[in-house]
Amino acid sequence: MATPVDIPKDHRFIDLTGKTFGRWTVLFYLGKTKNMTMWQCRCACGTERFISVSNLRSGMSRSCGCLKSEMISQRSRTHGMGQTVEYSAWIGLRDRCNNPKNSKWIGYGGRGIKVCERWQTSFENFYEDMGPRPSRRHSVGRRDNDGDYDPHNCSWETPEEQRVNTRRNVHVEWNGQRMILADAIRLSGLAPKLVDNRLRRGWSLERALTQSASHYDLHRAKKKQGTTNV
User: Which of 35, 36, 49, 96 is most buried when burial is the number of CB atoms within 10 A of its CB?
Assistant: First the structure.
């Protein structure tokens, strides 16, 4: 049971007792912990917790978690897809970008990867843009690994396609511009598999992107693709 602490006499101190922040109602002052001013609060659902004044005022904490659960539940009831893999994929990518406690956050939100405004609060928009997952082997992939989650950068991809895209996401200098290799390949008009094969064989970027495709090249690319798909 938390024990109240007397309110400081300092006239600059703001007493929050009885004030509400989101679903929290402030009950009493708890003192300072690690330079953070703490208050005992009760959520509208009845749960009590101690919350720092900074989290209360900034809106970082609006409830004990019941508000988020209700919002997710409401969205699930609205579109009726709360138990689908597509919905789980949407929840997962948002959590990786928005939640510092997510184990994968450092590689996503931690390095500036964001979810576009269209997808941030609407699963319906995400599903409209992405469509159903083609198979159990597909997951959400990003064409530019440094780019955000948005309709122009994302598609359903197999593990093999994601590995290829990872290689193509390196930045190169092409036609006087810095771009990812995938964009340079697209501008060349050549088949991505063909260019990938050439680069793995040690061709220079200039030669790989400018030399027209020969029968031998196409045969090797098709043979390599068939091996990958086995």
Answer: 96
Give pLDDT < 50 ranges for the chain: 227-230
Q: Which domain holds residue 49?
A: 1-64
Cβ contacts of 217 within 8 Å, gap of 6 or more: 194, 197, 198
- Rounded to 5 degrees, what angle do the CA atoms 65, 87, 104 make? 65
Query: Minimal CA–CA distance to 122: which of 101, 151, 152?
Result: 151
Residues 7 and 25 in one domain: yes
Which residues are CB-neighbours of 34 under 8 A, at least 6 positions away?
none
Name the domain boundary from 141, 160, 179. 160
Are residues 225 and 219 in contact, defined by beta-carbon separation less than 8 angstroms?
no
User: What is the per-residue pLDDT for 230?
Assistant: 32
pLDDT at position 72 is 64
Element (H, E) at 43: strand 36-43
User: Is 28 a member of any domain?
Assistant: yes
Pair (153, 174) in one structural domain: no
Q: Phi-psi category of 174—alpha, beta or left, where left has phi over 0 and alpha has psi -120 to 50? A: beta
